[in-house]
Fold this protein.
Amino acid sequence: MAKKKLVILHSNDLHGDFLPKEKDGVETGGLVRLSGYVKKVRAEEENVIYLNAGDMFRGSIIDSEYLGLSTINLMNMLRPDVTAVGNHEVDYGIAHLLFLEKCARFPIVNADLYVTLNNARLFQPYLNLERSGIRVMVIGLLTPEVLASTKGEKVVGGVIDLERAVREVGVICDNYRTKKTDLVILLTHIGIENDRKLAEALNPDWGVDMIVGGHSHTLMEEPEVVNGVPIVQAGTGSGQIGRFDIEYDTLWNKILDLRWTCVPINDETAPKDEVMAMLLEDYRGETDAKYRRVVTNFARKLTHPTRIQETEMGNLYADLVQWESSFDIMMMGTGAIRKKEMGPVVEYQDMLENTPFDDVLWMLKVTGAQFRTMLLHIFRDEAWEGHTEFYNFSKGCRFVYRKSTHTLEEFRFNGKEIQDDQTLLIAMQSYHYNNFDEFLGVPLEEVKKNMKPRVVATSVNNLVEEYFATHQDIDSHVEGRIVILE
């Protein structure tokens, strides 16, 4: 028996979470300690691979100020061995992403994005890594369900559904997996639910050994095994890192033992990387000088703990966008609010980091029947795992939904039941308007018959900034606008 040990580290959905957080005097997360942990493991173990399952960008003013270039430079210091493309990697445009790839000193893989004119892949689909004779193939995968922000990119396409994505994995394994390949890893950014479906559909003869995923921000206590394939994710941000410890028999080409843990990043587990600290401080100094000014104050700290229910900040943002508007209801995408808590003092930097996806605001007219269908689609079963788009609604709304019967028991606006033939003016950001059919379950072409949709604001953050500038001691509460009955 020729037994060797391989350590696989993995992160996902860092989202510009560069700086540490402090709670009860304990510092957790941040790139300085995350890098310190990776360096420590690389020094302690002979064979280490560090994977990143996508969404490096967005969430930090340091990222957005430099359009991702700062993030690439910081990731160059972190030195992942392979990174997958996440949906937020395309937020600054496909062309800019290809420029950032040239700046990266680490490989970025993706098997299913291509140029529509000639079907040429945009990225290298896989990468072979070797550690002391153990050869590992890593395949990157991103399905179009998480590429909603690229609807305007006419020259870029993707594998159209999960079934085709599965076939793409088979094509790569059939063509490039050889007898020298010991392990096959799918590095995905498709969400835990799609990871499960992917694992279930894999042909065992392709030899896929594990799925390291991202996108759904799933914090796991142990791997989920589907069709014999372990699936893992490490939540979101820099506060933790996933770790496989694998014993491998190179003589019989098989895994003898596989253990996985999700390691917290704190002062007990991770030393500081002082070189990373110096680079990060340079960027922080530049952005602090520009963005650290107070724009308002809240009456207290407001929270947004989850994307699948009514929240204090969700109500606040829906209300402030609807304030002094020409429409009835603002549908605020809960994923557009990035911080779990903010205040009581709110700086300009906090404001921009909390809603980094500044966007055009559209107004549409819907009938009561169409709006009911939209809500039933939003509240469908898949929503409760956090894999679909969810919304908070501005004041006056009262929706009571029962999961067991899939029915709306209350469907009210301003205290009155909404009638099927009634019309309402609703508003939403471009991201949701551009994906109206998929996100809301009603054809946009049908809605356009009620009234031609029109842009009512060119920047949602302009509305946020003006509201904050003209209001102080802002407060917001969960009021029962959305009630979900088990």
Q: What stands out?
A: Residues 293-485 form a domain with the 5'-nucleotidase;  domain 2 fold (CATH 3.90.780.10).
